[in-house]
Amino acid sequence: MTQKTFKTVKIRTEKRACEVAWFDDLCGGDTQFLGTIDPTRRSSFAHCDNIIKTADNQGFQNILLPTSYTVGQEVLPFASAMATQVKNINMLAAIRTGEIHPPMLARHLATLDHILEGRLTVNIINSDLPGLKEDHEMRYKRCEEVIEILKQAWTQDEIDFQGEIYQFKMKADPVKPYQQNGGPLLYFGGISPGSKEVCSKYCDVFLMWPEPEDSIYATMQEMSERAEKHGRTIDFGLRVHVIVRETEEEAKAYTKTMMSRFDAELAEKLKHRTQDSKSAGVLRQDEFRKSADEDDFVEPMLWTGIGRARSGCGAAIVGTPEQIIEKLNRYMDMGIRSFVLSGYPLIEECELFGQMVLPQLNTIKLSVEQGRTPKETPKTPLTFGDLRV
Question: For the whole model, what pTM was predicted?
Answer without folding.
Answer: 0.93
